[in-house]
Amino acid sequence: MSEYAQPLSRILAKLAATIVVAGALVAGLLFPLVGGTGLAARSSASLLDALPVELTDKTPAGNSKVLAADGSLITYLYTNNRTPVTGDQISPIMKQALVDIEDSRFYDHNGLDVQGTMRALVKNVAAGSVQEGGSTLTQQLVKQTLLQTATTPEDRQAATEQNVGRKLREARLAMALEETYSKDEILTRYLNIVYFGQGAYGIQAAAQKYFSVNAADLTLPQAAMLAGLVQSPANDDPITNPDNAMVRRNQVLQRMYDLGHVTAQEFTEISAQPVAVAPGTDPPNGCIDATIGGFFCAYALQHLTGTLGLTQAEIDQGGLTIQTTLRPDMQAAGDQAVLNTLPMGADLAGMYTVVEPGTGNVLAMSVNRRYGCSDPECESVILNSVASQGAGSTYKVFVAAAALAEGFTANHTITTGNPYTSRVYKKNGGTRGAPYTVSNAGNYAATMDMRSALVQSSNTYFLALEDALGSVEKPVRMAQAMGLRSLDGRADAIIDGNLGSFTLGPEATSPLDLASAYSTMAASGTQCDPRPVTQVLDRNGEPLTKADGTPLVPGSTCTPEAIPPEVATTLNQILIGDVSSPEGTGTRAAVPGHEIAGKTGTSQRRYSAAFVGYTPQYAASVMVLDPKVGRDVGGFGGNKPATIWHDAMAPILTNQPAVPFPPGDPALLDGGRPSAPEEDRSSDSSTTEEESSTEAEQVPPPADGEQNGNGRGNGQQGNRGRGDDD
């Protein structure tokens, strides 16, 4: 068989099949009148299928976009790169070129053009190749819409299977579309849905991809090339196959010339020139391409799917506008601050996380990592929100809050030895076995009140304060009430095990939850759940709703007086001293002219170091740790974490007026309460140094170049059931 005969036989077979299909369509439509312009329904209500929702309000939407709080773009989210445009945003010559090459009788038929189909078949047979399509643009719109909105393999197969039933349904739906929408609306919808190759769906994406212009600015040669791409995007790609693209473009120009829409001079001049492209870049897609805040972006998407219940397909294909809480200025300052202390991709990760007191809005998430890529300096885990290491003495605040709520005051004085042996807690938890003993590293006064013990971070005082409370339950429940959600899975075990080590913070802690818990104090006792998204708009710019009609995104979820306001305001006044007092452990975080409250913490073996600082407007935590293996981070909470906090917050605070904390409760700040009884404040003389931990919440000696305040600190020893160090 000759090279020519083989394709000719296939074309003849197609011709025969199309004649059969055309006859079936005419018979299947039953009652339409056959006229010179095609098929006209006498009664569309009885003749035509009801339009499925896919062809009305669920046609493919554009790229979803994620916006920062100021409206700037973070990234797009999409399966197919598409930016729908209105009819007046498409160059008229583009519309003409497409109609001329794909469906020159578009403005004459009613959706089904048997005459045009037969003419195309004859032309294709004569040419020995496909020169002209048989389906109308309206039929192609039906097919592409059903295909691109299909959600199951069965739906996709139904949209593409080669049988008379599909053709008949397409014809009916095409005619229904013609009854429902104007010609310009149909043409615009088609130009917004059709695939042009190179990942570009729709004319705007194609114009940007191939020519770096908007669809409204396309010229005749550009329009002719794009119109030609519809038939075979890969084969006629002007970037990878410029010769093929030129041939196909000239076919379009010839057709436009034959129909009188291009002059002889235009045809001659343009067809002699090679295809000229100016490729544009694809829009960012996903959090890996985020312009800022990649980890925040991932956390926001996690919130959309895990908390708000959207599917990834709804997000990627819904053309949504996702308004987030990210503040670009705070994110940029945090990014730089972390890198000032820890290089990008270093073994140690520094996580800086900011929330807004009183709303729970997450304002920034910085890490010395890039999100989602495959390089060694990249990370796909959202380190700001996961709990991996303890947060050390930052937990002493929860014990202090529980004590204040019970009526203890900031002046509550306890005398302890060093080491101090608990009268309540056992080394291995429970009620039996060796007692639990802790020691301080450094020189501490034997007698301290709550104010000085919290500022200087005394281990022995806070274990004795837990003794005075009689149980660890109140501190644990206080931490939960303040928003330390990463504690929820362990809370009952800590209480049931009677683990006095709670005050030393051995529990795996989420940096986000730690900032959130401290924000409850900044908001005078109002606890707000962290939230990264304030609104989700649908493709039409309307708020997305649930099935019951209520907004998908609720307002802030806050609990007023989650802790007593007087407890919160009193702690704020005490914790200012951790940053401003010479004896404080967090003095490196100080920003002149601003009141900052805070607390340092270091986990056992210095596997992590933390600092949480806050003002009435912002609460931010910093944790430094190795996310892959346990290792000594080489410093304490008052060093790298406090330094990062300062560097991140100083540019923000210095550009706005200082906001002071409200006064504390006089009765709790200055009121008197009898000191702990003698048996609660004396040490067990039989305890040896070997029973005490020597890890310290203090600043390393001057030789390490990291000295802070008076060098005071604390030692930590855990009692988590097996007697492990924490």
TrEMBL record:
InterPro entries: Beta-lactam/transpept-like, Glyco_trans_51, Glycosyltr_51/Transpeptidase, Lysozyme-like_dom_sf, PBP_transglycosylase, PCN-bd_Tpept. Residues 542-561, 655-726 are annotated as: Disordered. Residues 708-720 have a biased composition (Gly residues). It catalyses: Preferential cleavage: (Ac)2-L-Lys-D-Ala-|-D-Ala. Also transpeptidation of peptidyl-alanyl moieties that are N-acyl substituents of D-alanine; [GlcNAc-(1->4)-Mur2Ac(oyl-L-Ala-gamma-D-Glu-L-Lys-D-Ala-D-Ala)](n)-di-trans,octa-cis-undecaprenyl diphosphate + beta-D-GlcNAc-(1->4)-Mur2Ac(oyl-L-Ala-gamma-D-Glu-L-Lys-D-Ala-D-Ala)-di-trans,octa-cis-undecaprenyl diphosphate = [GlcNAc-(1->4)-Mur2Ac(oyl-L-Ala-gamma-D-Glu-L-Lys-D-Ala-D-Ala)](n+1)-di-trans,octa-cis-undecaprenyl diphosphate + di-trans,octa-cis-undecaprenyl diphosphate + H(+). The keyword Transmembrane helix applies. Residues 72-256 form the Glycosyl transferase family domain. Its EC number is 2.4.-.-. The chain crosses the membrane at residues 12-34. One of its GO terms (molecular function) is glycosyltransferase activity. It holds the Pfam family Transgly. Keywords: Carboxypeptidase, Glycosyltransferase, Hydrolase, Membrane, Multifunctional enzyme, Protease, Transferase, Transmembrane, Transmembrane helix. Residues 350-649 form the Penicillin-binding protein transpeptidase domain. The lineage of its organism: Bacteria, Bacillati, Actinomycetota, Actinomycetes, Geodermatophilales. This is Transglycosylase domain-containing protein.
